[in-house]
Amino acid sequence: MIDFTEFDSLFALTLYFNSEDKCKQTIIESRWKDGDIVCPFCGKHHCYHRSDGSFRCPVCEKNFSCLVGTIFENTKISLRKWFMAMYLISTHKKGVSSVQLSVDIDVTQKTAWFILHKLRTLFANYNNAELSDVVQCDEMYLGGRETNKHESKRTEKTQGRSIKTKTPIFGMATSWYEEEINHVTGEVVKTKYSIVNARKVANAKAETLIPIIEKYIAEGSLIVTDELSAYCSIDRSKYKHMVVRHGAKEYVINGFTTNGIEGYWGHFKRTIFGIYHMVSKKYLQRYIDESVYRYNTKGYPASWRFQDMFNASIGRVQYEDVKHMVA
Hints:
5-stranded mixed sheet; 8 strands; disordered C terminus; 3-stranded antiparallel sheet; alpha/beta
């Protein structure tokens, strides 16, 4: 079996995956670890090899390749380029643009854009964590910059939480410390871990935010928010609620802040403005999912992230999902 820990750099990755056959063999070994080939159409086990490298199901009598039921199905793009794209999007701290990726893997910008969006569909599985203990909630607004527009083209009353020209995003974050022993010095080191859950919302009203809070935050948790009126509807029989009144220049209350989720917003904004520059509302949630994945796994090595994405690309995608996965 392949040892993914070897891929600690893009050079190591490209050195190992030096042919299409090597890529396909890795998919086969990882997808069917015990050698039992399962038909992606009817689920029959013990399908057999054909001389052309594909497989055949003895029940439904359909031929299929190792790519059927994965995000690589029907692709005309080299698997080596797909693997490099997976490595780059998962390991770059702020992501990679389609323009840059097109140069890195030698494809057109349009093809690179398609690859990136198809890969981003895998990140949605990671943006559904249930949070507990102390959870910070906050909202941000993307877009709607009016300062650089001509006066005749500016939209009135877009300040603050107006959504006339901006898209609201709601986020929840929790963090904790774990003690680990440094095996060299023997000292106990505290390591901070953070988990974020974020999504595009229609507005920042109570009827929109409260169902999300109740879905993803465990009952009994302490919720820390700013003074947005929507948070007044948090069910006090389910949650404890603490308000940090930013409007009154209050940023800490009893040691609790909203700095964690606001720190994620800073990371997200640097990703959007620094790498992608502009994103459409239609695909915004995919960029959020990508950012959340990168933020939640920032402490993991590059090889782990690539392995995680690789497993998602071949194992967490159903056949019917792939057919409708249009970027």
